[in-house]
C-alpha cells in the first residue's frame, strides 16, 4: 500500500512538472512573438545591431584633389587638399595704398554725377549707362574699403603719399551740371564723366606699373578696361541719340 502511494505521489509530481514546463514554453513563445512582431525584423533587445554611421550627401571631401595652376607655359597639377598650404597674403606698397585711398572718393564723385542722369537727362542710352555705373562702382567701393580694413588701414591711410586725383570735377562744375537739363545736361555729363573716367584710367595705369599687391592689380586692370569701354559707349550714345 505504501509503495502504491509513493508511486502515485511521484506520478503527480511528474505531471505537475510537465504542466509547469508547458506553461513556461507558452510564456517563452509569447516573449519571442513580442520581440519579433513590431517591425518584422528578428532581433532581441540585447543583441540589436548598433545603427550604422550616416553617410550624409553634400559634405566636402577633405581628400578631394585641388587643381594647382602651373606657371606660364606649364600644365596644371593636382594635389591633395591636406597637402596644399594656405596662400600667404601678397605684400602691398605705398602705390597700392595711394591708389585705393584715392579711388574711393573718385568713385564716390562718379556716383554723384550718375545719380543726376535719371532726373536731368533725356537720352535713354545715357540713362542705361548711368545705371551701369551705379551698379558697378558702389560694390567696388565696398571692395576697396574691405581691402584697407583687412590690412589695418582706412581711407585716410594714403597720407602724404596722395597727390591730386586726375579727372575730379570741381564743386562749381558739379553745380552747373546739377542746374542743367535735357540735351544740355547730356552733353555736360558725357564731357565731365569722360574726363573723370580718363583720370581713373591714369591712376590705374600708375599702380599697374608701381604697385605690388595682386588684388589691387586686378582692380586697376578692371578700371582700365571697364571705364574705357564706358567712355566709348557714352560718346556713341550722344552721337546716336
UniProtKB/TrEMBL annotation:
Signal peptide: none annotated. The keyword Ribonucleoprotein does not apply. Residues 96-238 form the DUF305 domain. PANTHER family: SLL0788 PROTEIN (PTHR36933:SF1). The lineage of its organism: Bacteria, Bacillati, Actinomycetota, Actinomycetes, Micromonosporales. This is Lipoprotein. InterPro entries: DUF305_CopM-like, Ferritin-like. The chain crosses the membrane at residues 15-37. The keyword Transmembrane applies.
Amino acid at each position: 500500500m505504501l509503495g502504491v502511494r509513493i508511486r502515485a505521489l511521484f506520478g503527480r509530481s511528474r505531471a505537475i512538472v510537465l504542466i509547469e514546463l508547458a506553461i513556461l514554453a507558452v510564456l517563452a513563445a509569447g516573449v519571442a512573438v513580442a520581440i519579433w512582431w513590431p517591425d518584422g525584423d528578428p532581433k532581441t533587445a540585447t543583441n540589436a545591431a548598433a545603427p550604422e554611421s550616416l553617410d550624409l550627401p553634400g559634405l566636402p571631401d577633405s581628400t578631394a584633389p585641388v587643381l594647382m595652376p602651373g606657371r606660364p607655359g606649364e600644365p596644371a597639377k593636382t594635389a591633395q587638399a591636406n597637402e596644399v598650404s594656405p596662400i600667404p597674403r601678397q605684400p602691398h606698397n605705398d602705390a597700392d595704398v595711394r591708389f585705393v585711398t584715392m579711388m574711393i572718393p573718385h568713385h564716390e564723385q562718379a556716383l554723384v554725377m550718375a545719380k543726376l542722369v535719371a532726373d536731368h537727362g533725356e537720352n535713354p542710352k545715357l540713362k542705361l549707362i548711368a545705371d551701369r555705373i551705379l551698379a558697378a562702382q558702389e560694390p567696388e567701393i565696398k571692395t576697396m574699403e574691405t581691402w584697407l580694413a583687412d590690412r589695418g588701414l582706412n581711407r585716410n591711410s594714403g597720407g602724404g603719399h596722395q597727390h591730386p586725383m586726375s579727372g575730379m570735377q570741381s564743386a562749381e562744375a558739379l553745380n552747373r551740371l546739377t542746374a542743367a537739363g535735357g540735351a544740355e545736361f547730356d552733353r555736360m555729363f558725357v564731357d565731365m564723366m569722360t574726363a573723370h573716367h580718363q583720370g581713373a584710367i591714369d591712376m590705374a595705369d600708375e599702380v599697374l606699373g608701381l604697385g605690388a599687391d595682386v588684388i589691387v592689380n586686378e582692380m586697376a586692370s578692371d578700371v582700365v578696361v571697364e571705364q574705357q569701354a564706358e567712355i566709348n559707349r557714352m560718346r556713341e550714345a550722344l552721337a546716336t541719340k
